[in-house]
Amino acid sequence: MNEEVEELHLREELEKYLRYWPWFLIGALFALAGALIYLRLSVPVYNTVASVIIKDEDGQKAGGDAAAFSELSLLGGMGTNKIENEIGLLKSRRMMVNTIEALQAQVEYYDVDGLKEDELYLQSPFLIQIVRLDEDALSDALNSEMNLFTVEQTETKDELQLYFPENNTYKKIRIGEVFNLSFGSFVINDNREEVKGTIIKNRVLIKVRPIDHVADQIRQSIDIQLIEDKATLLEFNLESPVKQKAEDILNQLIFEYNKEAIEDKNEVALSTARFIDERLQIISGELDTVEVGLEEFKEANNITDIEAEASMIIENASEYRNREEELQTQQSLITSMISYLEGNAGDKGSLPANLGLQGEAVNSQIQNYNDLILQRNRILSGATEQNPTVVRLNEQIKQLKDIILSSLRQSKSNIELTLNSLRRQTGIIGSEISNVPSKERRFRDISRQQNIKEALYLFLLQKREENSLSLAATSPKAKIVDHAYTQNSPVSPKPKIILVGAFLLGITVPFIFLYIRRLLNNKIERREDIEKLTKSIPIIGELPRITKGESDLIEENDRSVLAESFRILTTNLQYLLVNAKNEDKGYCIYTTSTVKGEGKTFTSINLAMTLANTGKKVVIIGADLRNPQLQRYDTESKSFLGVSDYLVNDDHALDTLINDSKFHPNLKLFLSGSIPPNPSELLRQKKFGSMLDELREQFDYVIVDTAPSMLVADTFLISQYADLIIYVTRAGYTEKRLLQFAIDSQNDGKLHDISFVINDVKTANFGYGNKYGYAYGQEKASLWERFKKAF
Question: Across 24-137, where does the E strand assignment appear?
C-alpha cells in the first residue's frame, strides 16, 4: 500500500513538470543548437603519442656487439632507478628550446578567412625562414601585438603585402628576399606548390612568438609517463589541434635527447683517446732508445745468440722475471696515471677508464669520477659555476680525485715492496749464474727493458683501436618503439558528450526554473494547491484561461471549453443543492471572492448564462453596491435603477427594476443601481431578504454578485439568505494565505455552504476535465494552439 502511495505521489510530481513539456522541448532544442554551433566553431584537439625505451647499462652490455666493449666501460648507460631524472631532462626547458629552434615552431600560421582560425602549419602557402631573431625585441612586440601580421598575395606574382593590424600599416616585400622587422630579419618562401589536397589560401595570419614562451607552453602540454615501474618504457602524449605539428615536436624532442646522450657518452671515450695518444708518443720514444741500445751492445760485443748459452739458468728465473715484468707494467701505468692526475689542471676533464689497472676499487673510483664530471658538465650547460649543485659536485670531484691519488700511491708503494722482494730472490738466483759473463747480464737488462716497453706499447695500441670502435658503435640512448602518431578521434570537444550534456542542460534549466518558481510562488495555480489547505470546502469547478481574441461570455449552443467548464460547474451545483430547503422556490446562489479582480462577476454572469441555456429562469443581482461590475457586460444598462434604489425608496416596484438582458431571453438583470453612501446599512435591512424571497418565487435561480468578502463586510451581512456560496479564486492571482480567510469565515459561521471555483486556470494545470474532455467533439486544435495554451 505504501509503495502504491509513493508511486502515486511520484507520478503526481512528474505530471506537475511534464505539463510544461514545451518548455523542456524548447530548452533542449536551444541547448542542442548551441552545442552544434559550439562544435562547428571549436577547433578539435587531438592526442599524439610516441613511445621509447631508455637503455640502461646492464641492457647495453648484454646486447649484441656491445658486449665486446664491456671491458672498456665506455658505453655506460643508466639504471632504471634514475628514470625520473631522464623524464625531467626530456621535459626540461633547454630540451624544449632546442626542439623549437630546430623546427622553427615559434612561427605560427593561421587561416583568417574561415569561421574559425585554423592553424595551417606546413600547409601554409607562405613559410617564414628566420634569418635573425631578437628575443628581447620580440617580447616587446608581443606586448604591443606587433608580432602579428597578415601576408597576402598581390597582383604581382612574386610580390607580397604585409598588413599589421595593430597600427594599420602595410609593407610590400618580395618572395625570397630578406626583410627586416623590429624584432628580426626574415625571408618568406613560396610553399604553394608543396601544399596538395587542400584549398590554397591567399591570405594568412602569421604570429612570431618568443621561443621561451612556446617552450613553456609545450612543457605544460606534454605528458611523459613510465609505463611500468620495473621497465624503462616511456610514453609521450601531446594534445594539439594540429596533428603534423605535434608529431614533429615529439619526434624532434626524442632526436634532441638522443643527440645529447650520444655526445655525453662520447666525452669519456674522447678523453681516453687523447690520453692513449699522449702515452703512445712517450712509450714509442722510450722503445726506440732501448732498441738502439740493444743493437749497439750486440755490435760492440759480437753477440748473436747469447740466450741459448744461458737458457738453463734463465729458465729457472723466468717465473720471477715474468712476475717482475707484470709488476713493472702496473708500476708504469700507475706512475703515468699519477702524473696525469697531478698534471691535468685539476678536475676539468674525464680520466681514462680501464687501462688495465689491477684492483676493482681504483677502477670503480675512476668510473665514479667520470660520472661526476659528466653530470657537472651537463648542468653547466644551463647554469653557472656558482650554482649550488655545481659547487657541490666540484667538491665531490675534488674529494674523489684525492681518494684516487691516495689509492694509486698506495698501490705503487705496494708494488715497490713486491718488486724489492722479487729482486732479492733474483739476486739469490743471480749468485747461481755468477759465472755468466757480465755482458750477458747487461744484455738481459736491456732485453728486459725492451720487453716491458714493447708490451706497454702493444697494450696501448690495442686500447686505442678498441676505443675507436666504441666511438663508431655508440647507439642512441632512447630506442624508438613507436614514432609519433596521432589518434583519429579528437580528445576535445567530444561531440557525443557535448550533445548529451547540452540535452541534459536544456531540460535541467527549465526544471530548475519551474522548481524555483514553484518554490517561490505564493499564488494558487491548480486545485491541488487548495486541497492541501482544506478538505472541508469542495472545489466544484475550474474555469479556463481566456486567451486574447476569445469571448469571455458563453453563448447559446456554445461548445467552447469555457462553456463546457461551466456545464460541469452547474452539474456539480446540483449535487450541492439537493439538501437546500427551497420550498418550491428558486435557489439563491452567491458569488464572492477574497479580494477584487478574482473574477466573481465573470463567474456570475456565465453561470447565469449556462443555467438559462438549460431552460431555467435566471436573474442575476448586482449586490456589490460599492463597485458594480455587471454594467461592463451591458454598457446600455449603466443608467438603470437597481438594488440600492429599491432599498432606499419604497416607491419603487421590484418588477420595474428588473430588466431583460441581451444575452438570453431566460436571463434577467437586476443591477446594483446608484452607488449609495451607506451600502452596509442598506444591506442590513430586512427588505433585502424579502426582495430575495420575492425573486426566488419568480425565478428558478437567483445569482447574487456580492462584494469581496475580505475587503468589506457586505457579504457577511447578507450571507444567511444564500443556499450556496461560490467562492471564486483566481489562478496566478489569489495568494494561498488568503484562502485561510475563507476557511476561517466558514468555521466562524460568517459564511456557510462555501464551494470553491478556480478561475483563469491554465490548460496545463487542469486537474481533470478540460485536460481530457472539455474539447470533446470539437475540431482538434493545432499543435501551435496547444503549444501556446501550455504556457
Answer: 46-54, 107-111, 118-119, 126-133
User: Exposed (0-12), middle (13-18) or buried (19+): which is 589, by Cβ within 10 Å?
Assistant: buried
- DSSP string spanning 294-306? HHHHHHHHT-S-H
Question: CA-to-CA distance for 32 and 122, rounded, in angstroms?
Answer: 35
Alpha carbons 618 and 633: distance in angstroms, whole number: 16
Place of cell 491541488: 528
Q: Quick: pLDDT tens for 344-355.
A: 544 566 777 666
**Partners of residue 229 on adjacent β-strands:** none
Q: Whole-angstrom Cα distance, residue 674 to residue 649?
A: 12
CA distances from 161 to 126, 175, 183, 200 (A): 12, 10, 18, 17
Question: pLDDT tens digit string along 582-597?
Answer: 667 889 999 999 999 8
DSSP string, 396-446: HHHHHHHHHHHHHHHHHHHHHHHHHHHHHHHHHHHHHTTTS-HHHHHHHHH
pLDDT tens, position by position, 424-456: 877 777 665 654 566 666 777 777 777 887 788
C-alpha cell at position 769: 476535465
pTM (predicted TM-score): 0.55
Query: Grid cell 446608484 — which residue?
Result: 674
Residues 6+ apart with CB under 8 A from 677: none
CB 310 within 8 A of CB 438: no
Q: Checking DSSP bridges between strand 178-181 and strand 184-190, what pairing results, if any?
A: antiparallel
Which three-class secondary structure state does DSSP give residue 745? helix
